[in-house]
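Consider this:
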Amino acid sequence: MELFKCPNGCYVKVIDQFEPEPYSGLKNSDQIDLEVMIAQCEWENRERVEHRIQVAPGSPEVQVGDIIHFQNPDGIYSFGYKVDPDTLERQKIVHLASWTEVEILNIED
């Protein structure tokens, strides 16, 4: 589920941000148009050089599996706290991209 669709105040776990390869939907007989070629190049370059979890500039990095105490969406980015998985104590403030794929956790305050 995308982060901006989660209820405010919930705990979420960041999951793998799977994005299918553009060529994967093509059959042998399909012709490749320019849009698909550009999408494939962008997909390949993003896989090589960019972090898969997007955060606001200056925000601490977030990895797959991190637990976030989500507070609220705030435009393109969302406001929340990185949480220690053992103690559930809030650590750093993070600003994840609102479209980040997450899984809602059943954790009570």
Q: What stands out?
A: The chain has two domains: 1-17+52-109, 23-51. Residues 19 and 47 are 10 Å apart (CA to CA). The first helix runs from residue 34 to 49.
